[in-house]
């Protein structure tokens, strides 16, 4: 198991706990995920995104230093998003590798494109970035400071005290 399934299990645990104790959603203590990530597995990222999105207990993401690649997309799934003043963020197309026959590579390539399209929709639905911005930058590495992330809707606020 990777970090994505571990985080999914924790989110599921706290949702089950809150349900078992009949805690109304609006009274639940938020689950806080501290993000410091250079990215990682696309499938693990998608697992975390799904777990956060379906969580009735609020999930807050706090970027301490880096939310790069999959770390950025995981942060974007959080119900509230914050960053430390000097945190940084990276959007990019991602990287992958595969081996096998030409047909296997072709099938994987199509599947990977579907996953990238899911991430595109996720980015556009959770930030102020638009389709035109995406088309222009989808094949680049785009870095954001905390201030730029705030302006782009990647984060909701810059942390001034521990939350």
In brief, what are we looking at here?
The protein is an alpha/beta fold and 163 residues long. The chain is 47% helix and 19% strand.
Rg, Å, rounded: 17 Å
Q: Residue ranges: pLDDT <50 for 5 or more in a row?
A: none
Quote the average pLDDT: 95
Shape: globular
Q: Helix and strand string, N-terminal first? A: HEHEHEEHHEHE
Largest sheet: 6 strands, mixed
Compute the separation of the termini in Å: 29 Å
Number of strands: 6
Strand content: 15-25%
Helix percent band: 40-55%
**How many DSSP H or I helices?**
6
Q: Helix- and strand-based class?
A: alpha/beta
Helices and strands in order, then pairings?
Elements: H1 3-20, E1 31-37, H2 42-54, E2 59-68, H3 70-77, E3 80-83, E4 88-91, H4 102-126, H5 131-137, E5 142-145, H6 146-151, E6 157-158
Parallel strand pairs: 1-2, 2-3, 2-4, 3-6
Antiparallel strand pairs: 4-5
Helix pairs in contact: 1-2, 2-3
How would you describe what is shown here?
- The chain is 47% helix and 19% strand.
- With 163 residues, the chain is an alpha/beta fold.
- Strands 1, 2, 3, 4, 5 and 6 form a six-stranded mixed β-sheet that branches.
- Helix 1 runs parallel beside helix 2 and helix 2 (42-54) runs parallel beside helix 3.
- The chain starts with a helix and ends in a 5-residue tail after the last strand.
- The mean pLDDT is 95.
């Amino acid at each position: 198991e990777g970090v994505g399934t571990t985080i999914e299990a924790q989110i599921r645990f706290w949702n089950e706990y809150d349900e078992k104790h009949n805690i109304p959603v609006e009274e639940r203590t938020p689950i806080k995920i501290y993000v410091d990530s250079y990215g990682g597995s696309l499938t693990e990222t998608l697992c975390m995104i799904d777990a956060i999105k379906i969580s009735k207990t609020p999930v807050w993401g706090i970027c301490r230093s880096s939310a790069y690649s999959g770390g950025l997309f995981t942060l974007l799934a959080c119900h509230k998003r914050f960053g430390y003043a000097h945190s940084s963020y990276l959007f990019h197309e991602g990287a992958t590798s595969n081996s096998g026959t030409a047909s296997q590579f072709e099938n994987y390539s199509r599947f990977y494109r579907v996953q990238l399209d899911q991430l595109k929709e996720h980015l556009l639905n959770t930030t102020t970035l638009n389709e035109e911005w995406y088309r222009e930058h989808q094949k680049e590495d785009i870095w954001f400071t905390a201030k730029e992330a705030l302006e782009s809707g990647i984060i909701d606020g810059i942390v001034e005290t521990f939350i």
